[in-house]
Amino acid sequence: MENSRKTAIVIGAGAGGGVVAKELATNGIYVTLFERGDWPDYDKHINDELISQRVQDLGSAFGPDWKKNPRVLIRKDGSKQIVTAQNGGYNHVAACVGSGTVSYGAMAWRFMPEDFRLKTTYGDVEGSTLADWPITYDDLAPYYAKAEREIGVSGDMSENPFAPNRNEPYPMPAFEYNREGSILANVCKEMGLHPFPIPMLRNSIPYNGRAGCIRNRTCCGYACPANAKNGTHNTVIPVAMQTGNCEVKTNCFVYKIHTDSGQKAVAVSFFDGEDKSHTLEADIIVVAASATETARLLLNSKSVQFPDGIGNTNDWVGRNLQGHAYTGATGIFDFDILDLQGPGACMGIMDYNHHNEGIIGGGLLANEFYQLPYAFSGTRPHGSPRWGLEHKRFQRENYYRVSRMIGPVQEIPNATMRVTVDETVKDHWGIPVAAISGERHPIDQKHCAFLSAKALEIIQKAGARQAWAHGGGGGMTGGQHQAGTCRMGDDPATSVVDRYGRVHDLDNLYIADGSVLVTNGGLNPVLTIMAMAYRTGEHLVQKYVGGNL
After folding, report:
1. Nearest to 100 by CA among 223, 201, 199, 14
2. Across-strand partners of 10?
3. Are 299 and 436 in contact (CB under 8 A)?
4. Which range has the worst mean pLDDT, 47-61, 168-182, 410-424?
5. What is the Cα–Cα distance from 60 to 412, expressed in whole angstroms?
6. Using CA atoms, how far apart are residues 487 and 497, in angstroms rounded to an integer?
7. What is the pLDDT of residues 122-154, one digit of tens each?
8. What is the mean pLDDT of the chain?
9. Which of 305, 444, 457, 542 has a 20 to 30 A CA-CA distance from 324?
10. pLDDT of residue 327
């Protein structure tokens, strides 16, 4: 290796880390990509619902190992509960190469222009830390397009008048509606709404040397048997490795970032698969471990220079944790509305995503991914038996007759919903674990009530003989779609990273995951995370290879 050659460490091989690794490696920077899990292997993870990423009653097929990775929940009264994936411990992010992009539902949304200017659009919200992003939709649009092209997205927004502007079509055609999607789409049109096919990080046709989707019903929560679901593990990470400039270190857990006495991060310490500790130096360090684990790593990286953790000079690391409150409605029909043509979710509406009177933001509504029987056993009208003969009868008679319209609500960030570390609870390696505390902003419940009422109206007009709204939006957040804990901004007093993801306190430490999102949109955030990572990667290449920054 030449002495002038730059080296980088990327921590986390998920949506953001995989993209950054590819951008650096293809431009001559040598990358060591750390992943605390292993490579995913479909054949090792049968479609057992109880160990899927959505249910996790017996663990999670793609990690993390819940025995090694506990967390702490701090209740409203200050009491603590040690939790795992098995008992609801907020371990929704997978731990494998590709991370959540292996088992996700793969909805591929661009955020709306308003999502980048939420405070300007709606004004101050008492009790919140609502802020505008330091960049706009137009700034990110080219990187959305690059993500859609390189990772692979199927879609068609021609019937969605609310879609943000785009300069090119999707690289693959949209998926057709299944039976449920067709019925709900027709009803939405009758109501004056604007249904359209959901954009998916999934091959609708053979693309980039891999097969098209086989319409598997076990999709969301599972790996793809045809390798047609597009994540970083089967797109950009292999490209990075093929350059010879990227080594993927699996089963390696990074637990500390080291800095010099100036403004540079110089090395990381990690445990390998045999629990041996090592330290590795690099010119550039990029953290992409998820909004909870990235905050934990920074807070655990204490030193004389950073006694409260790296990037935490102004006590912003870990604050503003957001996820998505999901809400909607469920209906029981007198006919079979499901045909189990996967993945289930295929049509959506964005009519209620912004500019609703009395509502900040709003959210998407879409038909849902299919449930397998165990999860379906929780889909019942209020007061229904949860066991016994009546329960079994409902399972047999209604599995094909239940439809759901569900969507994520734009959560409003607040400083007390946060990630800290608990010095008294340690993981398998003796490292303080993440502690989750706080509650969603009260306005989120109002948003859920609004959106679920709209979903209920659609389900009822579709002919459900019995239907009910879900509500929601209370309690803690930060399960799936974690975001916000290292928010970006121009002012170090109110943010952790700058507009390119650089930690304000250091010249060469960057973050490239959902942590940097200022707000989380009323849509699944993964495509935005990928687009942001492409932007950060480009900036790093210009800075360290081009030398023009």
Report:
1. 14
2. 33, 286
3. no
4. 47-61
5. 29
6. 6
7. 999 999 999 999 999 999 999 999 999 999 999
8. 94
9. 457
10. 96
When computed from its CA atoms, the radius of gyration of the chain, rounded to whole angstroms, is 22
| Number of Cβ atoms within 10 Å of the Cβ of 400 | 15
Angstrom distance (rounded) from CA 265 to CA 422: 24
Give the Cα separation of 289 and 510 in Å (integer): 12
Q: Give how far the C-alpha of residue 410 lies from the chain's centroid of Cα atoms, to the nearest Å.
A: 14
pLDDT at 88 over 70: no
Could you tell me the two tokens for 346?
């295929």
How far is it between the farthest Cα atoms of the chain? 73
Under a CB-based contact definition with an 8 Å cutoff, are residues 441 and 453 in contact? Answer: no
For 423-429, the CB contacts below 8 A with 24+ separation are 425/70, 425/72, 425/80, 425/82, 427/68, 427/69, 427/70, 428/65, 428/67, 428/68, 428/69, 428/275, 429/68, 429/253, 429/255, 429/271, 429/275
Distance CA(449)–CA(47), nearest Å, equals 34
For 25, the token pair is 């490696």
Break the chain into its structural domains and give their ranges.
7-546
- Going by C-alpha positions, the residue among 337, 27, 289, 290 that lies closest to residue 177 is 337
Decide yes or no: CATH 3.50.50.60 for domain 7-546.
yes
Please provide residue 253's backbone torsions phi and psi, each rounded to the nearest 5 degrees. Answer: -105, 115
Question: What gap in Å lies between CA 29 and CA 527, rounded to an integer?
Answer: 24
Q: Which token pair is 272?
A: 């390998």
Per-residue CA distances from 173 to 125, 157, 197 (Å): 40, 10, 10
Distance CA 519, CA 528 (A): 11
Q: Which residues pair with 210 in a beta bridge?
A: 207
Q: 187: part of which helix (H) or strand (E)?
A: helix 179-190
Asked if 229 contacts 61 with a C-beta cutoff of 8 angstroms, the reply is: no
| β-strand partners of 308 | none
- The DSSP bridge partners found for residue 325 are 409
- Rounded-to-integer distance, Cα 127 and Cα 125, Å: 6
Angle at which helices 443-461 and 179-190 pack, to 10 degrees? 100
pLDDT at position 1: 41
User: β-strands 325-332, 466-469: how paired?
Assistant: antiparallel
Please tell me the distance from the alpha carbon of residue 55 to that of residue 391, in angstroms, as a whole number.
20
Partnered with residue 107 across adjacent β-strands are 200
Rounded to whole angstroms, the Cα distance separating 156 from 415 reads 38
Q: How many residues does the chain have?
A: 549
Phi and psi torsions of 236, nearest 5°: -75, -35
Strand order across the 466-469 sheet = 196-197, 347-349, 365-367, 402-409, 325-332, 466-469
